[in-house]
Amino acid sequence: MAQPLVKKDDDHDDEAEYSPFLGIEKGAVLQEARVFNDPQLDPRRCSQVITKLLYLLNQGETFTKIEATEVFFAVTKLFQSRDLGLRRMVYLMIKELSPSSDEVIIVTSSLMKDMNSKTDMYRANAIRVLCRITDGTLLTQIERYLKQAIVDKNPVVASAALVSGIHLLQSNPEIVKRWSNEVQEAMQSRAALVQFHALALLHQIRQNDRLAVSKLVTSLTRGTVRSPLAQCLLIRYTCQVIRESAGNTQTGERPFYDYLESCLRHKAEMVIFEAARAITELNGVTSRELTPAITVLQLFLSSSKPVLRFAAVRTLNK
User: Fold this and answer.
1) Based on the structure, what is the number of domains in the chain?
2) Contacts of 91 (CB under 8 A, 6+ apart)
3) 67 to each of 32, 39, 63, how far by Cα in Å?
4) Which of 20, 90, 134, 228 could covalently link to 268 via disulfide, CB atoms 3.0 to 4.6 Å apart?
5) Where in this chain does the record put each Clathrin/coatomer adaptor adaptin-like N-terminal domain (predicted)?
6) 131 by DSSP, 3-state: which?
7) CA 109 remoteness from chain centre
């Protein structure tokens, strides 16, 4: 007898039932977390338990103060393991648990030790965790290490420090503003992500000073920003300066428009699209100034990449 046809949707429903996290309960996982206290640690088993705990937290499950404290203390014991994969899970767990100021002291020494480790993965992740759970008092103690990390030769470490700076700027602006020299040095990095994060932080440090932002944009549009990601950011900041100086077209708009137009000839497609979109959104743009951007967008319509066709259609439609 012929098997009945099964619709695609039914297949997906069946697949959903095989989720490894289906039906896990907080109580059972907290019982499993006792493996963190074993004299002989099993890194794979510990990683699986942390994954379940992270899943519960991300599903909106709340832990009582006692439960969170017990899990936190148990997790800190895993610092004795040298397993890289497990250490990464430990960092994630500490960040998600957001320990109280009393508990932070317990992991600070372990994290600072990792910050000065020879293993770059330890250093980058320890910086992220410390900056996430730290307060102003501790930040002044580790400031010297963070400044060194911003100009580190390893791009992963430098990016971690810069991103941490972006987050810390909200809570400790005075401390982060003292890092301007190091951030400017990071702007010269050959690593695309480091240059991108450095520009984002530098702009945020100066964002309340219109003249400082204008000077930053002027210096960078004349220089060579290698990173396509940083170039996209610079185009956005340029547009911001153009809008703010719209009343003074003699000194503001024309030189910056030339920069935007030059970006239409960049080798990275994301930069070309960002520049074209920026030009189409400028106020008081003439048809002569608009033509190069429209031409580029029309070329994107015949691209083999769906994302470029979609972006071009949406921009042209506007």
Assistant:
1) 2
2) 125, 126, 128, 129
3) 13, 22, 6
4) 228
5) 27-318
6) helix
7) 25
